[in-house]
Design goal:
Number of strands: 14
Shape: globular
Structural class: mainly beta
Largest sheet: 14 strands, antiparallel, barrel
Strand order of the largest sheet: 1-2-3-4-5-6-7-8-9-10-11-12-13-14
């Protein structure tokens, strides 16, 4: 069972309701025969958690009702990932990813502050070069306030800034449909408006199968509409997740992306093998990911590479 929890921690689909990697910290810890010896990076992680929690309390205090001390329970959680992703024709690719989520008790935990390096449904598990076509090589750092009527609400709203400083509003609906004991369907849809890119929409669905041997198979699909260029884009992805040990797993990926309008075209193909492990700390992960990437802008000539990453989680429970 620990393998399943570990797998769900490392590569969930895009719905916020069940995507642990973007909304929470790992839930499994490596097994040690002796207590962990505190090192400099333990102090760094603890100090980061404390400083982010302090910032969250200061922010939440602005919304607190006079005489209420609910803001003292405000907490921040998130992750920081640094990777080097050299490949043929580009040996200098460096990828920095981060996500911060701040709960605001003064607003009855119905509003979160979210700061991220990219938009929620950009594929966070792929290499930076493979994410570029949909993102258009643009700065997608976003900061937003998200409102949900409750923790389990299927509908949420956002108001924030992103995509090169544009102001945007977004509505999202997501839900899960268990089809059987081993088969599930995750689906979501979004409608948003950016002040320069104008109207946009997305719809996504993921079919997931959990085998008796605790292996996970996923088929992810996503479709996009971009009003600024009247573009229709699509993305399909096959994933196979294999537990190796209680603290490590392997993920096999085949990923395709393209456009439907204004012309039908395949823009990229990407395949990889990713090994992920946390042998020393439950909040510290290491990844090695050999990959091959075919891009239309490079005449679909294969580009071979390997991604090396280190990822740290912080926050309550990390």
């Amino acid at each position: 069972m620990s393998c399943i929890l570990f797998l769900l921690c490392i590569a969930m689909p895009t719905n916020e309701q069940y995507q642990i990697q973007r909304e929470a910290r790992p839930v499994t810890a490596p097994i040690h025969s002796e207590p962990e010896r505190k090192l400099w990076f333990d102090s760094w992680q603890q100090n980061l958690t404390q400083s982010m929690d302090y910032t969250a309390r200061q922010l939440d205090s602005f919304f607190a009702i006079e005489g209420s001390d609910a803001y003292r329970d405000a907490r921040a959680e998130g992750r920081v990932s640094l990777g080097w992703e050299p490949r043929s024709r580009d040996l200098s690719e460096v990828d920095l990813r981060f996500r911060v989520r701040v709960k605001l008790p003064a607003l009855e935990n119905r509003v979160d502050l979210v700061l991220s390096d990219n938009e929620d449904n950009d594929n966070q598990n792929t290499i930076k070069a493979a994410r570029a076509p949909i993102q258009g090589n643009r700065d997608n750092t976003t900061i937003a306030l998200r409102y949900q009527a409750s923790e389990n609400a299927r509908l949420s709203y956002r108001l924030g800034t992103g995509r090169r400083g544009q102001i945007y509003g977004k509505a999202r609906f997501q839900d899960t449909a268990p089809l059987s004991d081993t088969l599930s369907l995750f689906y979501d849809t979004e409608l948003y408006y950016y002040n320069r890119d104008k109207l946009g929409a997305e719809i996504g669905a993921t079919v997931q199968y959990l085998s008796q041997s605790e292996h996970v198979f996923r088929f992810n699909n996503r479709y996009y509409y971009r009003d600024d260029k009247n573009e229709w884009l699509w993305r399909h992805e096959l994933q196979y997740l294999q537990p190796l040990t209680p603290t490590s797993a392997a993920i096999y990926t085949l990923f395709t992306e393209g456009t439907q309008q204004p012309s039908r075209a395949l823009t990229e193909v990407y395949t990889s093998f990713r090994f992920r492990t946390n042998p020393t700390r439950n909040w510290l992960f290491y990844e090695v990911e050999p990959f091959v990437l075919w891009l239309r802008e490079e005449d679909f000539k294969p580009s071979w590479g390997v991604a090396l990453r280190i990822e740290a989680y912080y926050g309550n429970g990390s």
